[in-house]
Each structure stands twice: as C-alpha cells, then as structure tokens.
Amino acid sequence: MSATAGCSMTDPARSDTRASGRRVLWLPYAQHGAVNPVVPAVLEIQARGAHVLLLGPPGLRPLADLLGVRFEPYSTASLFYDWSTPDGRDAHGLGPAARAGWFAERVAGEMAETVRVFDSFAPDVCLIDSFLIGSGLAAESHRIPWGSYVHYLFDEGADVDAMHQVWWEDRSAALSAYLRWWNELRAAVGLPAENRAVADAPWYRMSPLATFLLGHPGLRRGRRPLPAYVSRTSFPPWDCGESTGRRLRSPGRPAVLLANSSAWQEDTDLIGAAFEALGDMDLDVITTVSAVHELRTAVPPNVHLCGFVPHSQLLPEVDAVVTTGGYGLVSKALWWGLPAVVAPLGRDQPYVAEAVEGAGCGIRVAWPPRPPAIADAVRTALASPDLRERARRMAGPTPGHPGPADVADQVLALGGRS
C-alpha cells in the first residue's frame, strides 16, 4: 500500500515541543471516504511528536502501518465491517437495521471498546469520527478531551442532521422525536440528558470542544451560524492505494474521470450509462470501480477501466469528473479546480449535487442517469468557460479556513487542558 497526497503534509515550522509525548487516541470510521480526509491532520499531529494510537476494525491495520501509528483492533466482532462488498457493509447505514435496540447495542459496543483502550493507553485527547457516537460518549463520560470531525455533507442549517434520520424516523422526522431518541440513547449508556441548547441539536453527536468539518468548505451550506466550536476546514487530498504506474490519458485530447462510490452501493448504472454516452466521443474515460461489482456492459475502446486507484493520482490528468456525488471525490476534484458532473443516488450525494450546482462548478444529472443527459453534461463541463473558471477559482487551499496544521494544534491544545 502506498500513499498519494495533494501536497506536502507536514509543516516543520509548526512543530510544538510541548506536544511531544502527548497521547492521542484516533477513532476513525473504517471506510475510505471517512478515513482519508482526516489523515493530513493526523500526520501533522505525529509531526509534533505526539503518540497516536488508532482503534478500529482489523481491516485498518494496513493504514496504521502505512502512517506509522500504533494500532489496536476492536475485540467485538459486531463492530467489524467491510464497505467494499454488499455482504460486508456496516448495518450502521442499512436503513431499518440501524434502529431501536440494535443501534443502542452498537453505541454501547463502541463505548466499551473505547473505554477498554482508555485503561491501557491513557490518552490525553481523542480524535473521533462523528459516526462513532459511542466513542464520543465514552470520552464525555470519562472526561477526556476530544475533538470530532465530520467527513460527509449535510444541511448545517437544519434542525437535525437529516443524513442520519434513519436512526429515529420510525417515530417521526420532527425535532422532538430526535431529541427524545438522543436522550434515550444517552440514558441507555448511563449518561444524563443533553445539556446543550436545542439550537445545537444537529451537533449533539459532535464534540462541544472542537468539531472540524472536512471536505471542500465551498460546498458546505447552512442558513444559520455555526456553533463556536465548529469550523469548516480546508485540507489537501490524501489517498492510499496502489498506483497504476502509467499515464492513462492520450496526448492531445480531453479526459474525464468516471467513478462510482468507494463504499458499496447499487450505483453501477452510472458506469453503464456513461460508457454508452461517452464511448463514441473523442476523449479518454478513466474509470475506477472501487467496490466489488460485476459490470454487465461492454467497455468502449476509449475507456481505461481500473479497480481502486488513488484519485489523487488520476485527477491531475483529467479535465472533469463524472460521479455519483461522493463528497470526498468532489472535494478532491475542486482542489484541482475541476468541474463535476454529479448523478446523486443517495446518502449525502443529493446535498453534494445541490452544492455543486449552487456554486456554479458542476452539473447535476437526475438518477437514474440517462446517456443523453450525461453526454450533454460532459460536453458542457469540458466547453463552458464560466463553469470551468468557477471550478478553477475553488482550487487549492481556501483562505480563511484552518488547514491540517491548525487542526493538529487545536487537537493537541485540548490534550493540554488540566
């Protein structure tokens, strides 16, 4: 396994000897789109001399080895999952399976695993993906400072985080139902009712000390101000995986990157429709099919079909991206100033498609995608000066938003609290 990054990851000038020896427990959600975006901050934390331990499913061990951090696997089999296959997916995101008693047990399992490592590692601070509710509640209950991060997109001005409404929607989609569900969940693991204001309800699962919104800040939306402890960040892309070892683009003609989700879902209709739409066009179609899928379509001569390849390697070669709207891929595309054609299927993809259109840096195509619509959108993405210029203006770091070094400093500062 190798790593690919958009730029140098660590800033030697920002090293802090006071952080040397500090112990940081990192609890990621084990899926490419969730783990990779936060790695630049983890590398900055390491560069300051802190000791990092990654706690997660056994499948994360290669990542820990690549980054040079300690690894502790979960001991609870129910917390193991593999998003690259339909059978291995985490029930965390499978609709009704995530409701009621199952979910309370899941949160209790995460909490128990985290507390187990508290006892052996004695962290000064935790860095926790907001999906891992039980780990955040463990940090709260043991009064260990913690920062959280959000790897997906949602409406930050809504009453609740509707991306995860499936966890309580068997009762009602209303705010009152969410508040009741949240406090019942806290009670189930021995914690009192939430003491933050109701206006902060979308952020209850996140740290009240420091929460970092990952991905391109130009895509994030919300009709009301963020809480003081929440910040939108601007990180360079980071990927892991094996390089193709060769240039895929033909000299002298345009190229697009066509990609489905790195987390398994029934999204290969986009691949088939795009092959039909683009197969006769004078361009290269570099295609990654990241999860385990059987493609039932002919591969046109202008298609370079890959498995999982680091997108950070491919994006500098292409002129536009065609995708289901994975927030990670679209954020990477914009880092390189590339317009996106987005055909959203589910999860946070509709939010991404809406944000891309709103920012004027991409085009939304309805699901299920039709070949004529994809062909028209790709032609526009390649030819429109206005669209391409808006995407170009979003390239690179976004001024005024903290980068990996800033986030590392904030996380380590939490660990220095008495």
Task: Give structural attributes.
13 helices, 15% strand, six-stranded parallel β-sheet, 418 residues, alpha/beta
Question: How does this structure look, described?
Answer:
The chain has 418 residues and is an alpha/beta fold. The chain has 13 helices and 15 strands. The protein has helices at 32-35, 39-47, 61-67, 100-121, 133-141, 175-188, 269-278, 311-314, 327-335, 349-359, 371-383, 385-393, 404-415; strands at residues 3-5, 23-27, 51-56, 70-73, 125-129, 146-150, 210-213, 230-232, 238-240, 255-259, 284-288, 303-306, 320-323, 340-342, 362-364. The strands form 3 sheets. A 7-stranded parallel sheet has the order 4-3-2-5-6-7-8, sandwiched between helices. It has a 6-stranded parallel sheet with strand order 12-11-10-13-14-15, sandwiched between helices. The chain has a two-stranded antiparallel sheet with strand order 1-9. Helix 9 links the parallel strand 13 (320-323) and strand 14 (340-342). The chain is globular, with a radius of gyration of 21 Å. The protein starts with a strand and ends with a helix. The model is unreliable at 94-98 (pLDDT under 50).
Distance between the termini: 39 Å
Give me the secondary-structure category. Answer: alpha/beta
Mean pLDDT, to the nearest integer, reads 86
Indicate the proportion of strand residues: 5-15%
Biggest sheet details: 7 strands, parallel
- Helix/strand order, N-terminal first: EEHHEHEHEHEHEEEEHEEHEHEHEHHH
Unreliable spans: 94-98
Number of helices: 13
Q: Count the strands?
A: 15
State Rg: 21 Å
Shape by Cα distribution: globular
Helix content: 25-40%
Going across the biggest sheet, name each strand in turn.
4-3-2-5-6-7-8
